[in-house]
Design a protein that fits this description.
Elements lengths: L5 H16 L20 H11 L21 E4 L5 H10 L4 E4 L14 E3 L4 H14 L4 E6 L2 H17 L3 E7 L9 H16 L5 E5 L5 H7 L2 H6 L7 E4 L5 H4 L14 E5 L7 H6 L12 H9 L36 H24 L10 H8 L3 H7 L1 E4 L2 E4 L10 E8 L5 E9 L9 E3 L27 E5 L8 E5 L4 E2 L9 E2 L4 E3 L6 E3 L1 E3 L6 H26 L4 H5 L2 H17 L9 H35 L12 H25 L3 E5 L6 E7 L3 H24 L9 H25 L3 H32 L6 H5 L4
Parallel strand pairs: 1-2, 2-3, 4-5, 4-6, 6-7, 7-8, 20-22
Antiparallel strand pairs: 8-11, 9-10, 11-12, 12-13, 14-15, 16-17, 18-19, 21-22
Helix pairs in contact: 1-12, 2-3, 15-17, 15-22, 17-18, 17-22, 18-19, 18-20, 18-21, 19-20, 20-21, 21-22
Length: 800
């Protein structure tokens, strides 16, 4: 006898005793029970079934030749081997049947009458297993079933669900693959093959789905003699389903229970029963007549013997009946209510409530039916099947009812098995799975309460085909391998993966960029050329410094406006040019600071108009030099062209034309503040968008055209007499201007961000200083340091 299973008998007796003592549930009705042991044998199972439907003295069913019990219902342990045989027998006689101890999944066709199952459907158990695997990130597991039928059902129904959650099967096998009918060699070969699939596969997690009979080959495979013939096995995390309880597996003395240290099992949900502990403790082998199991249990549990029996250890002590059940280790006899005991208890109450409903319904017709009570039983008892389907009651604060398929609406407890060197073990409840609860509450587990196998150094084990792909990498499937087996390759540049085992990398949001390891995104820095940074402050300082120099030169020319050198260079054009250069330097300040709508509108247009004025003034000075020389030739009529109106027309017309281009630009596609998220990896650029590159380059092109014309005219006038020597300076200044802006265009196109703005400011400074230095520094030198040269006769003297 399995001593732990004796609690099932006590739960049955306790439930019947409670019901018989309840004056309201079944008044004037006394329930009784008979218990049969199938011995996991088909013959004994059929023998017990026939005996239940026969009279006491004759095992001939369907004949009433003798005293016969009123069989109300059969509560049977559901196994995958014998359930069909006894269910068909009882179904013929319309005897209600309630099963317990196994969570069925496979459907074997229509039954004569519905069979009620005191456990949820096995598919719910599998969903709980999937949640357990997903919780611990176990993606590489083995599955072993009691028989081929369960294995086929699993492959068809549940394997796709496992795949959806990213779980692969390292091995799938049924215990029926062991060839029990072969000779010794064939049997050993098939056993070794199965053992290698079972123990020596690479998965650290093994799922077992079976019943109590499945434990027989499992115990044999794990016994010491067989394991000594094999390689030393490594530790595993065993996930056991309902029906595969460790107390059934641990029968026998030739194997170590340590193999199952840290195992997790799904059991039927249970609660403590009020008064059950006292009921157990009152059991005594000398005072409980009719209990044919108690003495055998007592001998096995306490290791004693009875004087009137050959059972027990003859050399041991005598059973006194004073032994206490609560002193027994839990693996010998658990004092807390197990899932199967709780199911049997509820099954008895389900029958009682069904009978209560039935007798309450027919009580009104009792007066009409004058026959015996037995006749009433014969006419109405089959209705229990119909009533059971709708029965609902509360036990220990929980509702007990069946669903439309006759399966219990309940959940599962998750038990962690802890073993000890003395071959004892205990089960600790560490979690639960309730498929009927709210989606957020269907699964819960206490990781801290779990004890793992020593093979894993008491740490949470891993069960994967290969190491996880760390953030910054993505999975790449291995050809010819399950999808759980893959290589890890780095994410492409600019992409990231922020979690383990991602199938694909992804880009950061536009306002973020990947870190160096490409495993998370960093917010980009908003940047623009500001006065707070050294570059912006330095450029602003240069702009003000150059402006001050220009103002000082303008002041020098105004103070010495009556001197020959100032008069000879067309004072009005000189003032216009100096003011234009001053504004050019100051216009650079529009490029510094956060871009705003006004500054973006003025930035390029003001620069274009002011620079055009400066270049056109230089062009007018060049034309003036040429016309002045030509006017000195005998018979020349150029004199009349050398009036002030000529230079003013050149400056004004060029400036107005450039202003017209800029106004057209502002009217059609005005510049606007813009945010550039893509040009720089780590920065968000605040900039002015020119909106129309065509108009921008048209403005530059017009300035360039004026500069080239001025350069060409000045170049051809460079060998004029010394008093018209200014043409040389003009040609050099225009050459500098052209070189600067020709170099600006390609650099501008290849530069982004603050550097692009700084480049344009630099070009403004260099080209402006080129004009200022070439045209005005020599004159200032003469005015301030060589005043003796600033006389009219010096300009009239000829070189030869």
């Amino acid at each position: 006898i399995v001593t732990g299973n004796y609690q099932h008998i006590l739960a049955l007796a306790f439930a019947v005793n409670e019901i018989n003592q309840d004056p309201h549930l079944l008044p004037n009705i006394t329930l009784g029970f008979r218990i049969y042991d199938t011995c996991l044998n088909a013959w004994w199972t059929n023998h017990a079934a026939v005996e239940l439907i026969s009279s006491w003295k004759s095992r001939v069913p369907n004949y009433k030749c003798d005293i016969q019990d009123n069989l109300l219902v059969v509560i049977e342990e559901l196994t995958s081997y014998f359930s069909d045989e006894i269910q068909n027998i009882f179904g013929v006689y319309k005897i209600p049947q309630i099963t317990h101890g196994f969570s069925s999944v496979e459907r074997r066709g229509a039954k004569l009458l519905p069979i009620y199952q005191m456990s949820p459907n096995g598919s719910h158990q599998y969903k709980g297993i999937i949640q357990l695997l997903h919780h611990f990130k176990w993606r590489w597991v083995g599955f072993f079933a009691a028989n081929e039928e369960i294995l086929e059902w699993f492959v068809k129904e549940m394997l796709p669900e496992f795949s959806k959650r990213g779980i692969c099967l390292a091995a799938m096998e049924s215990f029926t693959s062991i060839n029990y009918d072969a000779d010794k060699d064939g049997f050993m070969i098939s056993s070794i093959t199965f053992y290698n699939k079972l123990i020596n596969n690479k998965a650290n997690v093994l799922i077992f789905y079976g019943d109590s009979r499945t434990t027989i080959p499992l115990r044999w495979l794990l016994n010491q003699e067989f394991k000594q013939k094999m390689y030393q096995p490594k530790g595993k995390v065993w996930i056991l389903t309902i029906g595969l309880e460790l107390k059934n597996i641990a029968r026998g003395k030739s194997w170590e229970v340590q193999d199952f240290h840290g195992a997790l099992s799904f059991t039927l949900h249970s609660n403590e029963l009020q008064g059950f502990q006292q009921f157990i403790q009152n059991r005594n082998p000398y005072s409980h007549n009719g209990d044919d199991f108690i003495k055998e249990f007592w001998v096995e549990a306490f290791g004693c013997s009875f004087q009137d029996s050959v059972q027990g250890h003859l050399s041991g002590h005598i059973c006194t009946g004073e032994e206490k059940l609560d002193n027994l280790p839990e693996h010998v006899f658990p004092m807390s209510v197990t899932g199967q005991s709780y199911s049997i208890y509820n099954a008895v109450y389900a029958v009682a409530h069904a009978l209560h409903t039935m007798y309450s319904t027919i009580s009104q017709t009792k007066a009409v039916m004058k026959g015996e009570r037995r006749n009433l039983h014969e006419q109405q008892l089959w209705q229990v099947n119909r009533i059971l389907k709708s029965v609902s009651f509360n036990n220990t604060g929980e509702e007990v009812r069946f669903d439309e398929n006759g399966e219990l609406v309940a959940g599962f407890d998750i038990i962690n098995w802890v073993t000890f060197p003395n071959e004892s073990f205990i089960g600790v409840r560490v979690g639960k799975m309730d498929p009927w609860a709210h989606p957020d509450e269907t699964f819960s587990i206490n990781e801290d309460a779990i004890v793992w196998h020593s093979w894993f150094n008491k740490a949470q084990p891993l069960s994967v085909c290969n190491a996880n792909c760390q953030p910054g990498y993505r999975k790449k499937k291995k050809e010819g391998e399950p999808f759980c087996c893959y290589d890890c390759i780095p994410c492409p540049k600019g992409w990231i993966s922020d979690k383990e085992d991602l199938d694909n990398c992804f880009k950061c949001p536009e306002d973020q960029y990947p870190n160096e390891d490409q495993n998370f995104c960093i917010s980009k820095t908003v940047t623009f050329l500001s006065y707070d940074e050294p570059l912006g402050l330095g450029l602003a300082t240069c702009a003000l410094s150059f402006s001050l120099i220009t103002v000082l030169i303008l002041g020098v020319f105004l103070k010495h406006r009556e001197t020959p050198i100032v008069k000879a260079n067309n004072r009005n054009l000189t003032y216009t040019l100096l003011i234009s250069l001053l504004l050019c330097f100051l216009s650079a300040l529009l490029f510094i600071g956060q871009p705003e709508k006004v500054t973006c509108l003025l930035r390029q247009t003001a620069f274009g108009i002011i620079f055009t004025m400066a270049v056109s003034a230089v062009l007018a000075k060049t034309v003036t030099v040429v016309l002045a020389f030509m006017a000195t030739q005998p018979g020349s009529r150029i004199q009349k062209w050398m009036r002030k109106k000529m230079t003013s027309f050149i400056v004004l017309s060029c400036t107005v034309l450039q202003a017209g281009i800029c106004l057209g630009w502002l009217a059609t596609s005005p510049p606007f503040p813009d945010t550039d998220l893509h040009s720089m990896l780590k920065d968000i650029l605040l900039q002015c968008n020119e909106s129309s590159p065509t108009m921008f380059y048209l403005v530059l092109s017009f300035m360039g055209f004026l500069a080239i014309v001025g350069f060409v005219v000045a170049f051809f006038a460079r060998k004029l007499p010394d008093r018209f020597n200014e043409a040389k300076y003009i040609s050099f200044s225009m050459l500098v201007f052209c070189i600067v802006w020709l170099a600006f265009v390609p650099n501008y196109l290849s530069t982004k961000g603050k550097s692009m703005v700084a480049l344009e400011i630099y070009s403004i400074f260099v080209s402006s200083m080129g004009l200022l230095g070439c045209l005005f520094f020599p004159k200032c030198y003469i005015i301030l340091l060589r005043p003796e040269l600033n006389k009219k006769e010096c300009f009239l003297r000829k070189k030869h």
